[in-house]
Write a structure and sequence with these properties.
The chain is an alpha+beta fold and 116 residues long. The chain has one domain: Glutaredoxin (3-Layer(aba) Sandwich), CATH 3.40.30.10. The strands form two sheets. It has a two-stranded parallel ribbon with strand order 1-2. Strands 3-4 form a two-stranded antiparallel ribbon.
């Protein structure tokens, strides 16, 4: 959850106008309680059953085959997936935390605006 807190508070990310939301497989009540405790204000959605994760194709990186990894999906203004990266995957470093600037740099490149 620290990743969500840090992205929400990152001035560089805020200045892009990109809307952030977080999706997890946690039950809504648990997700809401954790978000409130940490002061998370961005939308937090529950994907119990992993339907959204499956539709976006991110279950290919599932941990233990059942839990989505640490995946970022950039959906463009037309509703198309413009960029996907699972930082928890071995081929992407196997990290469960990524500095906001690293995510921002990659998103900026995907959007064609270069490095932020």
């Amino acid at each position: 959850m620290q990743q969500v807190v840090d992205l929400q508070g990152d001035e560089g990310f805020s200045s892009t106008g990109i809307a952030l939301l977080s999706i997890a497989m946690d039950p809504p009540a648990d997700w809401r309680r954790s978000g409130n405790e940490l002061g998370i204000e961005l939308p937090m959605l529950s994907d119990e059953g992993n339907r959204v994760a499956t539709e976006y194709g991110i279950m290919r990186w599932a941990m233990a085959g059942v839990e989505p990894g640490h995946t970022f999906v950039l959906v463009d203004a037309d509703g198309r997936i413009a960029w996907v990266r699972d930082y928890g995957a071995p081929e992407h470093g196997g990290s469960m935390y990524v500095a906001p600037q690293e995510v921002l740099d990659q998103v900026s490149t995907a959007l064609g605006s270069g490095s932020a």
